[in-house]
Amino acid sequence: MFKIVVLVSGNGSNLQALINNCIENHITGNIVGVICNDPNAFAIKRAENHSIPCEIIDHKEFLSREEFDQRVLDSLIKMQPDLIVLAGFMRILTNIIIDRFENKIINIHPSLLPKYPGLDTHQKVIENNDKFHGVTIHFVNNELDAGKVIAQGKLKVEKSENIAKLIERIHKIEHDLLPYIVNKFATLEIEKQNEIYYKTYNF
Ligand code: GRF
Q: Whose CA is nearest to atom 8 of ligand 1?
């Protein structure tokens, strides 16, 4: 069984999409654990609703990034994931975790990277009158939103589109593309996994 661990910090709608796709067998694998760094995140409730073990590791209780990562690493080692998915996880990981799980950690980011790493991506798209917006799924390294790109989902920004509508459209892409790519990891032999890299999906 392909074991997935999801790291979250907030609402967890992407976690929910992954849970639903596992239940519906669109992902050939199981979410064996969730790790959340915010005790108030709604994502915790989503994991509980489906009886998925959820570890709450509050980063504020640690003196340094390294100490926090060491604690997360201890949990990850116990969970033995084949793939770690950062789905709205608002912490930069250090090499303590990255080196241990090389090519096994992916992140979803709401922009067409390398455009707009970091926060407020939708706002920036609107302010700059961009014609296109989208999401990127990429491997995680120790820089913010900077690892090797796996797949992008792209949409055309409508004229005078408001931000709420744009965010809704982006979330829809995320909820389709992330489970699709996770299932590629779950089903493709390791040697063939580079077949999934660098694809753009137009929505
Ligand atoms: C998503 O837009 C994701 O791309 C970004 O954070 C957001 C998380 O949303 N990294 P949710 O918590 O999955 O609803």
A: 88
The DSSP call for residue 157 is P
Backbone angles phi, psi at 37, to 5 degrees: -95, 0
Q: Pull the structure tokens for residue 193.
A: 């996994």
For domain 3-108+135-151+170-195, give its CATH number from 3.30.470.30, 3.40.50.170, 3.20.20.60, 3.40.50.300. Answer: 3.40.50.170
Which atom of ligand 1 has the smallest separation from the CA of 41?
12
Atom of ligand 1 nearest to the CA of 12: 12
Domain residue extents for the chain = 3-108+135-151+170-195
* Bridge partner residues of 152 (DSSP): 136, 200
Judged by phi (left if over 0) then psi (alpha if -120 to 50, else beta), residue 198 lies in left
Q: Does the Cβ of 91 fall within 6 Å of ligand 1?
A: no
pLDDT in tens, the chain (203 residues): 999 999 999 999 999 999 999 999 999 999 999 999 999 999 999 999 999 999 999 999 999 999 999 999 999 999 999 999 999 999 999 999 999 998 899 999 999 999 999 999 999 999 999 999 999 999 999 888 899 999 999 999 998 889 999 999 999 999 999 999 999 999 987 666 666 666 777 78
**142 Cα to the center of ligand 1, angstroms:** 19
